[in-house]
Amino acid sequence: MMRQGACLPALFEEQARRTPSAVAVELGRDKLSYRELNARANQVAHELRSRGVGPEFIVGICLHHSFQMLAGLLGILKAGGAYLPLDPTYPRERLAIFLEDASPRIILVAPDTQGCLPPHSSEVIVLESDWGRLQDGEASDLDVGLGPGHLAYVPYTSGSTGRPKGAEICHGALVNFLGSMRRAPGLEPEDRFLALMPLSFDISVLELFLPLTVGATVVLGDRSALYDDDRLLSVVRNSRATVMQGAPYNWSSLLRADWKGDPGLKMLTGCEAMPPEHAARLARLGRSLWNLYGLTELAVWSTVYRYEGRPGPLPIGKPIDHTYVRILDSNHQPVADGDVGELHIGGTGLGRGYLNSPELTAAKYIPDPFSPEPGARMFKTGDEARLLPDGNIEFLGRRDFQIKYRGFRVEPGDIEAALAQHPGVVAGAAALVKSSDGEAALTAFVVPRGAEPIERSLHSFMLQKLPDFMLPEKYVFLPRLPLTPSGKVDRRLLATGSVVSIPPTAA
Q1: Of 154, 185, 200, at which residue does a domain stop?
Q2: Of 37, 230, 257, 451, which is most buried, counting CB atoms within 10 Å of its CB?
Q3: Does the structure show a pLDDT above 90 at 340?
């Protein structure tokens, strides 16, 4: 069990003292020991401290998977700061929103990512080119007085109004999550955890930090393999991983590539529903299969379920340690066991709220009248669920029109706000449309202005506005958007794909 009240930097330092020569991180043929990684992280931390970083200080980090990225993350946390993931593949316009909202005074970059940022006023530390100077600095552990309530990281998530929002996650929530994951699904010092998820995706927290508190090895992989069947197959084979985490889309990618399996691989999935037939196949190909559920506003995963061959949809399981769920009706009253209601989550894993958004925080992080703890809150997930007779929870979908796509949470409003900015668009809507073979495509429905062809220019325009996981795969042009009797866009009809389109006028 993890030491109560400890923060992540202290847990990593304790592990580095226990196993200084063990391999902490591996990238291709290169390796860093726990001693080496701790020294590099301390050098970054001392540099940040010299520039005023301490508890509640947000530091941006814009790096691809590398030793420098991991040392940078740990260095930020060791200095007492909280890290703000800035994905170098995101459009500058989106990164500008993060920077304006979070206002980091310092950003860690690499030579190949510095140019990915929009204009800003933050100080910049170029880790690779500054590494010689940092290596001459102090490499001892720091004591900055971190506590469980201090901020650890600020991930941004899609917003229904078209503006992303940052979630504040504290050390207490992070350490509780890691401690529970160490127990189930479980991780041992002999394990090799394949880390593929981009830093902007909060489930990367599990891949990068859990191994470093256990004495296991982080195997850094190429994130671009996540959307290429053959490349993903090659990465998994070459990694010699014993644990891998992926959205159902990623596991389906391996199945499409005719993966033969690995009897020593523990498989973790979540973010969206996995088809039962895929779960049955995967369970025969690896050591074990675990289905997890969580939201960015809480410390990554909040429930866990081990698949053991039951037919039908996979449950999302039971709450992790020091976490509880409530299934409530529209009046925030408990529903009867087996009845459908909205899933609410409370406990140690709950985030502080949305950065600089007190009204939105109050709307989503609501008081918990059923808790004996004064001031207890719970998060309104917007997901429908029910309690099964065996105590597991079954996820039943969204109460609104939010989309779970390739493991990412996508608000249609985020896409629609970008569509509305194109001069050739009168109106637009987004939906996830499933074809007859069960494959889903993120689709934009567009009412064009005039008869001029805009499909090509529209796609180029959207590339400048949205990250790749939010880009529509298809554009359907309509004379008007279908409406419900109340005058709102009929999103359910759009999701069926049964609307009459105007043939695209451009290739």
Answers
A1: 154
A2: 37
A3: yes
